[in-house]
């Protein structure tokens, strides 16, 4: 159930949340209990009363219509649901199926793939290396897909037998969708179609990784979170959620909105790197995951990121005397070190980057 203290760089034994859930305990350990201000509360869920949801964008509509809808969603929400996206529904079912199969494997099988904070690749149960930190009620599996030199075949599970083939096919389809979305987002900004992709290092330079999230049943769901409030540090996230069980909440106008997933849709959200590149015209948004006592939940997040050693900064076309650059250049390698050290903490990292840029007199940007 737990790894040795300090093993692989973790500061203390790693406990698998799935094992806690399956133990039959009626209460959760203190390590998972959130402060009262961070606990889920029906009174703070805006759509419980107003029935609002994140925007839905039809990717099969005309290019201009899709670009306008995506731009509005990225400016106002930082999130949208993409329908008619072109990824086969059968592949979505297979991807969910193989990963449910992995998390149903015996614990000794899963433990062979235990991860470390050096790369997070493999089977994990915590983020951040702060000793004594409050933990989230969830396990996960993290994999690098691109660039090729980061691909680690020994980290890809062998069970179920078709997991590797399915995950490869799935991640390639979603990568192509991400490239389409980057072009649509650029058109919505009024810049050249390939401009955002260029800022990420081109199609061959961009990074792709997959995180499969598994949220077991929880005996006290009102006291904890499946994933703490955060904005995604990368460029863009394409999320395949469990269309049977809700759990994702998005912060909008000061309240938490529980996303009602459209069957077969992808949930797309802006990450911090796109906020930087667009000089905050498109904004990343805090989101979190709640859990429940009756149902487990699985989701598959594909992260599309800039080339890790490429300095990322606002596009010159989006900078003017009236709208000076809000961020100083920083590589994604340097940026994500904060997350790996501290775990998810709202929007503190991108806000810190903006604050640093504000202290530089007459700051300028480059796209390199």
Automatic annotation (TrEMBL):
Residues 205-306 form the Fe2OG dioxygenase domain. GO terms for molecular function: jasmonic acid hydrolase; metal ion binding; oxidoreductase activity. The keyword Iron applies. The keyword Nucleotide-binding does not apply. InterPro entries: DIOX_N (IPR026992), IPNS-like_FE2OG_OXY (IPR044861), IPNS-like_sf (IPR027443), Oxoglu/Fe-dep_dioxygenase_dom (IPR005123), Plant_2OG-oxidoreductases (IPR050295). Its cofactor is Fe(2+); L-ascorbate. It catalyses: jasmonate + 2-oxoglutarate + O2 = (1R,2R)-12-hydroxyjasmonate + succinate + CO2. Keywords: Iron, Jasmonic acid signaling pathway, Metal-binding, Oxidoreductase, Plant defense. GO terms for biological process: defense response; negative regulation of defense response to insect; regulation of defense response to fungus; regulation of jasmonic acid mediated signaling pathway. Pfam families: 2OG-FeII_Oxy (PF03171), DIOX_N (PF14226). Belongs to the iron/ascorbate-dependent oxidoreductase family. This is Fe2OG dioxygenase domain-containing protein. The gene is LOC127772597.
């Amino acid at each position: 159930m737990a790894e040795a203290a300090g093993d692989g760089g973790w500061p203390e034994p790693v406990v698998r949340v799935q094992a806690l859930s399956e133990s039959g305990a009626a209460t959760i350990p203190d390590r998972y209990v959130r402060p009262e201000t961070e606990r889920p509360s029906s009174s703070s869920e805006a759509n419980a009363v107003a029935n609002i949801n994140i925007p839905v964008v039809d990717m099969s509509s005309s290019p201009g219509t899709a670009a306008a809808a995506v731009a509005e969603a990225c400016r106002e929400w930082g999130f949208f649901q993409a329908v008619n996206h072109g990824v086969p529904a059968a592949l979505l079912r297979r991807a969910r199926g193989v990963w449910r199969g992995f998390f149903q494997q015996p614990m000794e099988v899963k433990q062979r793939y235990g991860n470390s904070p050096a790369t997070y690749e493999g089977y994990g149960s915590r983020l951040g290396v702060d000793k004594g930190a409050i933990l989230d009620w969830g396990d996960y599996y993290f994999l690098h897909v691109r660039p090729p030199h980061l691909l680690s075949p020994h980290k890809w599970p062998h069970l179920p037998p078709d997991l590797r083939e399915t995950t490869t096919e799935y991640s390639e389809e979603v990568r192509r969708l991400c490239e389409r979305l980057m072009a649509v987002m650029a058109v919505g900004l009024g810049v050249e179609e390939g401009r955002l992709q260029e800022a990420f290092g081109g199609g061959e330079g961009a990074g792709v990784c997959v995180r499969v999230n598994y949220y077991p049943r929880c005996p006290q769901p009102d006291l904890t979170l499946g994933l703490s409030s955060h904005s995604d540090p990368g460029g863009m996230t394409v999320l395949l959620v469990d269309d049977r069980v809700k759990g994702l909440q998005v912060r909008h106008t000061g309240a938490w909105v529980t996303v009602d997933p459209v069957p077969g849709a992808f949930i797309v959200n802006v990450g911090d790197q796109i906020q930087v590149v667009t000089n905050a015209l498109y904004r990343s948004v805090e989101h979190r995951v709640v859990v429940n006592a009756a149902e487990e939940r699985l989701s598959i997040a594909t992260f599309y990121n800039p080339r890790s050693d490429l300095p990322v900064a606002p596009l010159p076309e989006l900078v003017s005397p009236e709208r000076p650059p809000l961020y100083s250049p920083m590589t994604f390698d340097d940026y994500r070190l904060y997350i790996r050290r501290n775990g998810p903490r709202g929007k503190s990292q991108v806000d810190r980057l903006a604050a640093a840029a504000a202290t530089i007199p007459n700051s300028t940007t480059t796209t390199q």
